[in-house]
Specification:
oxidoreductase, Ald_DH_C, alpha/beta, EC 1.2.1.3, 7-stranded mixed β-sheet, 5-stranded parallel β-sheet
Length: 512
């Protein structure tokens, strides 16, 4: 591991097997992390055993009793220090994210910046965990509501954003007074361990008890322990719709809470009134960024019939300029898929397009040879399809863009909404009526609806999430913090009488 990291000029971020907060140290089996960039073994990480898991949860439960009593602004100060620690380690961690996951170096650094940004957001939030006051219908009574921390928050993250999405949950949960147990993707364990080590140092410097933040590593079975555990009131899970349905059902059976961020099948509508000079770059980045492995990746392009040929021609030309290769080389636009299973899914989707009668405008290809030894590099492709193709309604985590045409903006919105997922959406138009229709109750049914920007690239200040099979959860900004807390309504009688609600009379004499 050290050799690989040194070769990449990544200084080790405390990659040890220490105990305590670093809960991945155990006697479990080894989990190997291979880079999709060159198929090199980066490291072997010890998987969490069931005995380890029980110790982690017990420690977390104990830590909660201390952490929840630390004033929220003080918790915010500790999170501020975490943000500073990530600033110091941004270059190394960003490079590691790029190498272990396969996204471009710019995107890897950007993901670490998201951690820093959400830390900044959480610091301010620590002084703004507001409740409400309400007028009572009874005289000499006061009503208000307040929020208290839930307890242990279980975080299950996906490989495509191996550190940022964890931070969206963890930093908010921490300032809310919760403690966190993180189960990262088994495909990207090392970046998670790096993050854990960074914040562990901050917690120890502040003499915070062990268990405020813990990590468990392993396959889906480790995630099943989390979701079924009645000691964990909230599970936040990011991943496929299939996984989310299992998690949601399991948590619901024990009356727990779940925050689900699942699949996306995101579309951009391009109207005759669009500024194509910004629309085309937005489409290309949305479709090929992170090799099409973002939950907000652009997968469907709905183009007005009057400009269809023009947009198609410009897209094909733009795709010819894409450079595919090692994501650590900043001259490249597209890196590898996460593994060869993802490549197989890419190939299966292309075959399904052809079987349903679609036409390939930019032909798909799996790349081999020098620089592509891992077998995970594919060529971003474009297919002409019909909106009702079965494959078009399915999310494939790969750089495949489906083109289709429409005649009226109302028809385009129907096409946009006619998929099971509802995460991100966009329209490019300079016509105010078209834009407002898209954002209205008769418009996009997605959790995110944009005008004149693409489907990917959400800011942390807004609540992030989607509807339908995307799960309905909201993370990051706005009032997403409320999901990490329990709401309590309080009524105080400061008078000498006991008037009952709704004027009810209940005549029993009390002690004199």
């Amino acid at each position: 591991m050290q050799t690989i990291l040194e070769k990449l000029a990544i200084k080790p971020i405390n990659f040890g097997t220490s105990t305590g907060l670093n809960a991945w140290a155990s006697e479990g089996e080894l989990l190997s992390s291979f880079s999709p960039v060159d198929n090199q073994l980066i490291a072997k990480v010890t998987q969490t055993t069931f005995e380890d898991y029980q110790q982690v949860i017990t420690t977390a439960k104990s830590a909660f009793t201390t952490w929840r009593n630390i004033p929220a602004p003080r918790r915010g100060e500790i999170v501020r220090q975490m943000g500073e620690a990530f600033r110091v380690n941004k270059s190394e961690l960003g490079k590691l994210v790029s190498y272990e996951m396969g996204k471009s170096l710019q995107e890897g650094l950007g993901e670490v910046q998201e951690i820093i940004d959400i830390c900044d957001f959480a610091v301010g939030l620590s002084r703004q965990l507001y409740g409400l006051t309400m007028h009572s219908e009874r005289p000499e009574h006061r009503m208000y509501e307040q929020y208290h921390p839930l307890g242990i928050v279980g975080i299950i993250s996906a490989f495509n954003f191996p550190v940022a999405v964890w931070s969206w949950n963890a930093m908010l949960a921490l300032v809310c007074g919760d403690v966190c147990v993180w189960k990262p993707s088994e495909k990207t364990p090392l970046t998670a361990i790096a993050c854990q080590n960074i914040i562990t140092a901050v917690l120890r410097n502040n003499q915070i008890p062990e268990g405020v933040s813990s990590i468990i590593t392993g396959n889906y079975q480790v995630g099943e322990w989390l979701t079924a555990d009645t000691r964990i009131p909230l599970i936040s899970a990011t991943g496929s719709t299939r996984m989310g349905k299992i998690v949601g059902a399991t948590v619901a059976t024990r009356m727990g809470k779940s925050l689900l961020e699942l699949g996306g099948n995101n579309a951009i509508i391009i109207t005759p009134n669009a500024d194509l000079s910004i629309a085309i770059p937005a489409v290309v980045f949305g479709a090929v960024g992170t090799a099409g492995q973002r939950c907000t990746s652009t997968r469907r392009l709905i183009i007005h019939e009057s400009i269809y040929e023009t947009v198609k021609e410009r897209l094909v030309k733009a795709y010819k300029q894409l450079r595919i290769g090692n994501p650590l080389d900043e001259n490249n636009h597209v890196g590898p898929l996460i593994d060869t299973k993802a490549v197989e899914a890419y190939q299966s989707a292309i075959e399904a397009v052809k079987q349903e009668g679609g036409t390939m405008l930019v032909v798909s290809e799996v790349l081999y040879g020098e620089g592509y030894e891992s077998g995970c590099y594919v060529k971003p492709c474009i297919a002409e399809v019909k909106p009702d193709f079965r494959i078009v309604k399915h999310e494939t985590f790969a750089p495949i863009l489906y083109l289709m045409s429409y005649s009226t903006v109302e028809e385009a919105i129907v096409i946009q909404n006619d998929v099971p997922q509802g995460l991100s959406s966009s329209i490019f138009t300079l016509d105010m009526r078209e834009a407002e229709l898209f954002l209205s109750v008769n418009g996009s049914d997605c959790g995110i609806a944009n005008v004149n920007i693409g489907t990917s690239g959400a800011e942390i200040g807004g609540a992030f999430g989607g509807e339908k099979e995307t799960g309905g959860g909201r993370e990051s900004g706005s009032d997403a913090w409320k999901v990490y807390m329990r709401r309590q309504t309080n009524t105080i009688n400061y008078g000498k009488q006991l008037p009952l609600a709704q004027g009810i009379k209940f005549n029993i004499e009390g002690d004199s």
